[in-house]
Amino acid sequence: MYSKIIGTGSYLPAKALTNFDLEKFVDTSNDWIVSRSGIHQRHIAADDEVTSDLALHASRRAIEAAGISPDEIDLIIVATTCPDKMFPSTACILQDKLGIKSGGAAFDMQAVCGGFVYALNTADLYIRGGQAKTALVVGAEIMTRMLDWKDRTTCVLFGDGAGAVVLRASEEPGILAGKLHSDGQHHALLRVDGSVRDGVVQGDPFIRMEGQAVFKFAVTVLHRVVDEVLKMSGLKDTDIDWLVPHQANIRIIEATAKKLGMSMDKVVVTVENHGNTSSASIPLALDAAVRDGRIKAGQTVLLEAIGGGFTWGAVLLKW
Ligand code: ACO
User: Fold this and answer.
1) Residue nearest to atom 26 of ligand 1 (CA)
2) Ligand 1 neighbour 111 (Cβ under 6 A)
3) Atom 10 of ligand 1 has which residue's CA nearest to it?
4) Structure confidence at residue 88 (pLDDT)
5) In a shared domain, residues 276 and 200
6) Same domain, residue pair 161 and 188
7) Active site amino acids
8) Residue 207 — pLDDT band, cuts 50, 70, 90?
9) Is 130 exposed, middle or buried (0-12, 13-18, 19+ CB in 10 A)?
10) Is 195 helix (H, G, I), strand (E, B) or coil?
11) Which of 116, 146, 157 lies closest to 317 in space, CA to CA?
């Protein structure tokens, strides 16, 4: 038994904030942001939007593309770092918003930017293990609510958005291999320290990052995990038709593609349009490339991501 993606969907909030907009209130420039990150704009959730709303839009589009009824979904995993509430999980709230009463499991997965790969690998294992037949796997984030707009080293990089896939049990190969890693020794390099205690936020509630250390670590480990999934599946790097990487930064994407010996015309890049949307970035990019016809049936697609923790992983699949 395999699992196979049968539908994708994504959603970006209507309000776009360009680098030129940022120049007006942050000590930065469009040239600096574009040259260091490849980002031209990011989207900002409306005041009355919460993460499950973004997830709902993306999920509805994925469910429609899959041609299934929401009630067929017996597993929901929402990868998010920005849950609606401390509890219940955003996945349970999404389950309600979708009107699903199937009683299947629904839970959140917190692996920051590694979240979507973590969630997809987990859903694949549930399906292969016979615990679910049709999974909704979502990455949804409102990262901009954790930004310190006075910290130009972070606030120019992140954005809001959501992406979703429907994964279904299949006789034909879909997901070929997946591998996850983490190394908690580096948890201080990318973090939000704040927590709620006695009704008050304790500690710094904003994203803090050692940018250069994150960059170096990302480039070092990402190609290794790609080698692992290639070995697991018996494929070679030349068999990969499309790389859909976590959209954090064009320079990390280019450096990883170079280490893999892949030319950039086989890499799906959408970071210019939405910045780093953390766990939403891979399904946003995947949905773009599926809908515009780049990714075609039978092609081999590699997804890879790294995020705070650090967490990282890769999933190799046949489309
Ligand atoms: N605008 C203008 N200047 C800036 C800005 C800004 N927004 N931010 C920093 N600078 C300045 C710095 O103050 C510094 O000035 P100085 O030389 O006078 O001190 C100069 O630019 C260079 O700063 P560096 O930190 O050395 O810049 P670097 O080339 O390393 O780029 C960046 C910074 C983009 C953060 C880079 O380190 C990077 O890409 N890191 C990866 C981080 C990342 O993508 N994280 C995403 C989350 S993790 C994940 O998703 C994998």
Assistant:
1) 212
2) no
3) 153
4) 98
5) yes
6) no
7) 113, 246, 276
8) very high
9) exposed
10) strand
11) 116
pLDDT for residue 248 is more than 90: yes
Q: Are residues 108 and 168 in the same domain?
A: yes
User: Does residue 247 line the site of ligand 1, with CB under 6 A?
Assistant: no
Residue 111 and residue 254 share a domain: no
Q: Same structural domain for residues 146 and 219?
A: no
| pLDDT of 40 | 98
Question: Which residue range(s) make up the domain with 91?
Answer: 2-172
- pLDDT over 90 (residue 264): yes
Per mean pLDDT, which range of 134-138, 139-143, 222-226 is the poorest?
222-226
Q: Is residue 107 lining ligand 1, measured as CB closer than 6 Å? A: no
Distance of CA 250 from the midpoint of ligand 1 (Å): 13
Q: Which pLDDT does position 102 carry in this prediction?
A: 84
- Calpha distance 68→66 (Å, rounded): 6
- Whole-model pTM? 0.96
Alpha-helix runs per DSSP H in 151-275: 152-155, 211-233, 250-259, 271-274
pLDDT band at 209 (very low <50, low <70, confident <90, very high): very high
Q: Could you tell me if the CB of 181 is within 6 A of ligand 1?
A: no
The domain tally of the chain equals 2
Domain of residue 289, CATH code: 3.40.47.10
Tell me the mean pLDDT in the region 168-184: 97
224 Cβ neighbours under 8 A, 6+ residues apart: none
Q: Are residues 18 and 134 in the same domain?
A: yes
248 CA to middle of ligand 1, Å? 12
Last residue of a domain, one of 138, 172, 206: 172
- Residue % of the chain over a pLDDT of 70: 100
- What does the pLDDT average to over 101-106? 93
- The pairs formed by 83-86 with CB atoms below 8 angstroms and a separation of 24 or more are 83/51, 83/108, 84/50, 84/51, 84/52, 86/196
